[in-house]
Amino acid sequence: MEQVAGSIRFNTDSAKMEIYNGEQWWEIDSTSPEQQTGGTRALFIGPDQVIDFINISTTGDATDFGDVHYNTGNLDGSSDRTRAVFSGGYDNVISKLQIESQGNSSDFGDLTLARGNINVCADRTRAVFMGGFTHPSPTPAGVNVIDYVTVQSEGNAVDFGDMRDTHYEGMGFSSQTRGFVAGANSTPGTIGTGEIDYITISTLGNSAGFGDQFETSTWQRACASNAIRGLIMGGRKSPTEVNTIEFITMASLGNALDFGDLNRIARYEFAASSPTRAVNAGGYSSPANNNTIDYVQIMSTGNALDFGDLTAARNKGASASNGHGGLG
Question: Is residue 138 pLDDT above 70, yes or no?
Answer without folding.
Answer: no
